[in-house]
Structure formats: structure tokens, C-alpha cells
Write a structure and sequence with these properties.
Helix content: over 70%
Mean pLDDT: 84
Radius of gyration: 20 Å
Largest sheet: none
CATH class: Mainly Alpha
Number of domains: 1
Shape: elongated
CATH superfamily: Tetracycline Repressor, domain 2
Distance between the termini: 69 Å
CATH topology: Tetracycline Repressor, domain 2
Order of helices and strands: HHHHHHHHHH
């Protein structure tokens, strides 16, 4: 029993790398077994196939984000601080889990409905939280009226555009990883924030 978690972790880590590099459709169980240094039979003892391996990868990412979001929710921080921490979380995970980020970017528009749905569920979880805090910000008069869920996905799109470029190893990618969180958080806040002084001046 003690060996089971270690084996599953080796398999999912190998699958993450191969799915990111070769694509989900092009990756076979034999390649996963070779990279994980386990037998195919051992993998099938834990997983029914690569679809179930992917499900576990996505499930772990959802759980990781849910844990972070729940902790953030309980702290009751101001909206601006929550936005800053959400952006930082995204970039921290980008650096810690680069293969997973590449996998999701690569497979987002996979023609397989089941795969597409799994990845969309992951982003939907984060978007739902952002929509929730946007509603609170609108009610408090901190930000302009908008569609909370649509705005949440727009914000995620802005973050992902920078994140995608930050996945490289060149000088620009390094700059984006280092400066991206602070710059994006500031830009998002300016985009959403209502300057009460200017609003009164134009009234």
C-alpha cells in the first residue's frame, strides 16, 4: 500500500510531461510507462487508461485551486488584494506546474468533448470565484457595473495571454514571469476600478 501513491505520482508526472510535449492524442500508455519507469501492467492496476490519468491530473489541479480559493475567501481581503493574490497564484502554479500549464493550453480546444469539458471545468472553477468577488465589488461601488461571469473570463484571458508567452525560456519569457503578476494585477484593477473622485467631477 505504501508504494501505491508513489507509483501513481510517477505515472501522472510522466503523463503531464508527455501530454504537454506530444499532445494527449499522440501519447500512448507505453510511452508513459517508459518515462515513469514502471510496467504497463502496473499502470493498468491503478488506471483504466490515459483518459483516467488525465482525469486525475485535472482533479488534482481543481483541488489545489479550490484549497487556495477557499483560504482566500476566508481571509476576507479587499477586492484589490484578492485580484493581486489570484494573479500571483496563477503565475506561481505556472512556474511550479509548467507541464500542466502547457498541457491545458495545448489541449483546450481538443475535439474530444470529454477532454475539452474536463479542462473547461478547471477554468470554470476559478472563473466562478472571480465572478463572485466581482459581484461584491459592484455592490460595494468599487468597480464599474458589468457582467460578472463574462468579466471573469475576460480577466482570465488577459492573464493567460501573458502566461502563454511566459512559458518560454528566452529573455522575454523570464521578464514576463518576473514582472507579469504585478503588472497584470495593476492593469486589471485599473480596468475594473471606478475612480470616485473623477466620477463626481464629471457629474
Amino acid at each position: 500500500m505504501n508504494d501505491e501513491p508513489r507509483l501513481e505520482e510517477r505515472v501522472t508526472q510522466a503523463a503531464e510531461r508527455l501530454f504537454a510535449q506530444e499532445g494527449f492524442a499522440a501519447t500512448g500508455m507505453r510511452a508513459i510507462a517508459q518515462l515513469a519507469k514502471v510496467s504497463i501492467g502496473a499502470i493498468y492496476h491503478h488506471f483504466s487508461g490515459k483518459e483516467e490519468i488525465l482525469e486525475q491530473i485535472v482533479r488534482e489541479e481543481i483541488e489545489r485551486r479550490q484549497e487556495f480559493l477557499e483560504g482566500l475567501r476566508q481571509r476576507g481581503l479587499p477586492l484589490k488584494d484578492q485580484i493581486e493574490r489570484l494573479v500571483k497564484m496563477h503565475f506561481d502554479l505556472l512556474q511550479e506546474r509548467g507541464d500542466v500549464a502547457r498541457l491545458f493550453f495545448r489541449e483546450r480546444f481538443d475535439p474530444s468533448p470529454s477532454l475539452r469539458t474536463k479542462i473547461q471545468d478547471l477554468y470554470g472553477n476559478v472563473a466562478g470565484y472571480i465572478a463572485e468577488i466581482i459581484k461584491q465589488g459592484i455592490t460595494a461601488g468599487e468597480i464599474r457595473p458589468c457582467s460578472p461571469l463574462l468579466t471573469a473570463y475576460e480577466m482570465l484571458g488577459m492573464v493567460e495571454a501573458v502566461s502563454l508567452r511566459a512559458l518560454g525560456e528566452d529573455e522575454t519569457a523570464v521578464q514576463f514571469r518576473n514582472e507579469g503578476p504585478q503588472e497584470l494585477a495593476a492593469s486589471l484593477w485599473l480596468w475594473l476600478h471606478i475612480d470616485r473622485g473623477e466620477e463626481k467631477a464629471h457629474a
